[in-house]
From TrEMBL:
Keywords: Cell membrane, Membrane, Transmembrane, Transmembrane helix. InterPro entries: dCache_1, Diguanylate_Cyclase, GGDEF_dom, Nucleotide_cyclase, Rev_trsase/Diguanyl_cyclase. PROSITE patterns: GGDEF. It comes from Paraburkholderia humisilvae. It is a multi-pass membrane protein. It catalyses: 2 GTP = 3',3'-c-di-GMP + 2 diphosphate. This is diguanylate cyclase. It is an enzyme of class 2 (transferase). GO terms for molecular function: diguanylate cyclase activity.
Amino acid sequence: MAAFMSNQLDFILFFYGLAFILLGFTCFAIARSTMGERRTAWGTLAGFGLVHGLGEWLDLCALIVGDRPAFAEMRTAVMTLSFVLLLDFARLEAIGRGLRLPGRWIHVLPVTLVALVGVAYGLTPANVAARYAIGFSGALATSLVFASQARGASGAAKRFAAFASAGFLLYAVAAGIVVPAAAFWPANIVNYGVFSSLTGLPVQLVRGLLACWLSFSIWGVFCQQIAADMSSARYTAYVRRHLAWTLVAMSAILLCGWTLTEYLGGIYRRNVQQEARADIDLLASRLAGETATVEGMVKALAGSPSVLPLLQGADARDEDAGRATLILDVASSGARQGYLLDASGAVVAASDGRTIVAGGQDRSAASYFRKSLSGQADYQFVFDAASGELDYSASYPIREPDGKVVGVAVLTKSLEAFETDLQQFDRPYFFADPQGVVVMTNRPAARLRHLWPVATGSRSPPSPIVRGSARLSDRPMLAKEVVDGNWTNVDDDRNYVRRRFVGETQWSLVILKPTREIFASRFLGIVITLLVTIMALIYMLGRGRWVQDEIETGNRIRLQQQAIELGLQASTDPLTGLYNRLMLDKTLADEIARSDRYRTPLSLILFDVDHFKRINDSYGHPVGDKVLVHLSRFVPNLLRKNDFLARWGGEEFLVLVPGVSGSMAFQAADKLRDAIGQDVFGEVGSVTCSFGVAEYEAGESAVELIARADGALYRAKANGRNQVVLAPQPGMSHAAPASANSL
């Protein structure tokens, strides 16, 4: 599990940073909807989310493209700044709740402490100090802020605030206590390595999950706040569905993105394994080319008839011929030197041309001599720790015609040319002895280091290279010996390691393929996931905004309709639906003002139902109401569009006739009287009305105008009803004649 998760660190850092950036944007939206100190506080928390998310993405960049001291310093500074913003959010919220705390200058003290630790001890202790002094304190204080907010809330908002409080409390532990390993307590006990070994998970994954938890919890608080402000059951239900679907959608996007990223990484991983196989085949082939020549030439040398007399006491002529053959084979194979050993292990001839005295340079104790004397060829690598030179030695038995072994031929070749050629190899490669000690590499810092630790209780003799080598005290590069190909950590960096044994020996070639290139190929999956996430969030936020606007528009229209209805109720008669006196007074005042301004005529018609009391007494009040309703619907059909009809009270109605003189209004009223008399009013039958008409006189008040019309109506009733009477203008003593006869 730990190995798998270490391969997923790039995606973990991606979604860790994404979750905090989403947290930042959520807090920014909350800040825009609030005012005063709380707006500043939420803006500060938004800054924490955005800066911390950016810091995690910088860690992702360091993982993919490599790290540098200056870049590491910048990332530590960004992380410290984010923790300062988190701590400042808690400070501002505490001040908003009435606590008296110092200003922002108080943050200078922990920041200075972190800087001093960095200068004195390095970046890792500074990172640890920032987490202890600022990160833990800020997360814990923020947890207390949301706990306080949960106590003052109710319903879903209370639950979301409690979730946020618990999330920040756990984040205080994950980010402020679980820290990079350092040489002081408690970082030497509670750190990334210990956490990973106990849980099998990188702590970054836990922090990322907590970041998602925090983002959705605070988003839930924000949505509940909007739902409370809107007071809409529909929006409250939508918010619940929206939160659930958003959580499901984001989880699906991240899981699919993770799967895509792993798929792309798997393709490259297989390519890496194939390339590693091809590379190590190339190295092995190149080395085999160096060794095969020596092996073939030493066999030819041992089988040459001219070397046998050197082992049997040859004359000068045979001795010169044998030495010439030896020198020729050494030159042909590119060997450093060659020599012949007799059955006792003494050197009887050497390629450097020296005369070997009897018993000189005894090699009888050498393993290769004993093996070849037994009739077998022997091949081995020889490393000189003092000079750092690596040779390849091949020995072969020399036989008499009857097959008896009488000596050994030896060729030794330097591998310096091979090493020089491979210095240009772009992948890290190592050539190690059976104990895993690196004797040849294109990475100078790894020379004479153990690739893997020597197994406890191993029967293999210790490497002769160990003596006098200080580099072997370094920690092994690998945790355990690699047999063939494996993905493992090399000096804490993930690599694909490929090993190939050389010939019949226990010496081996090892090459590395850093996973940084795999992270680069996986980056495409991360980018695709980011783009899909952005599009999904834009849709979800846009959908949420559209629903919110739709509900607000519906509420606004409903309020407008209610206002219109209330206005109609205030200005209309509930029985007939005609305008009432309140609306009449306003309209009449407006028409009088218009008449005075433009000097246009204005007339008023007042009429009521004749013998209406008799109708009520004979048929009942409901029938009487029906007569009034029927009349209120019938009369408008006989009026102009700009005429104004209102119920004056009881069975009386009033018509304003703008732009019409008294005589013309008189004629209109007479036509109206006649039409009413010819209509049928249900079970009552025919009904008649009496009319009083008055023309407005400049300077006259509305009360005076209505009074003159009412006087004319009174005279129409007194004259027998079913008549129209035109009131005389002010200053005249007689009314105009009535029309029609009374009933």
